[in-house]
Design brief:
alpha+beta; four-stranded antiparallel β-sheet; 4 helices; 37% helix; 27% strand
Length: 109
């Protein structure tokens, strides 16, 4: 029931989304289900949208809120774990926010 986070570049050829191509650039795996567990019931609106069994795609325009909520979550949970997982996800989100053709895709099991 993990939530793996992928950074994806969308190559748009014309206006028809069926002709668009996705290039997976990088991924942060959640093998211990920690990210999914932390997001469930956290009280942070964007992170609570993460479905441990489905997918959520976020645009670069949504990254400011996503990074802010990740920071809040990291502060809350820093005594519980080292934070390397959330740091990796935050790095992907910051890269995503810098380029409009990037998306963050969060895939549950």
């Amino acid at each position: 029931m993990g939530a793996d986070v992928s950074l994806i570049r969308v190559h748009r050829s014309g206006s028809n989304p069926s002709r668009w191509r996705q290039e997976h650039l990088e991924v942060v795996l959640d093998p211990s289900d920690l990210f999914a567990e932390l997001c469930s019931g956290c009280g942070l609106p964007m992170l609570e949208r993460i479905d441990p069994y489905g997918s959520l795609v976020l645009s670069s325009a949504e990254m400011d809120q996503f990074v802010t909520e990740l920071s809040v979550l990291r502060q809350r949970e820093k005594a519980r774990f080292s934070g390397a997982l959330l740091e990796g996800i935050e790095q992907l989100a910051r890269r995503c926010s810098a380029e409009s053709d990037l998306q963050l895709r969060i895939d549950g099991d």
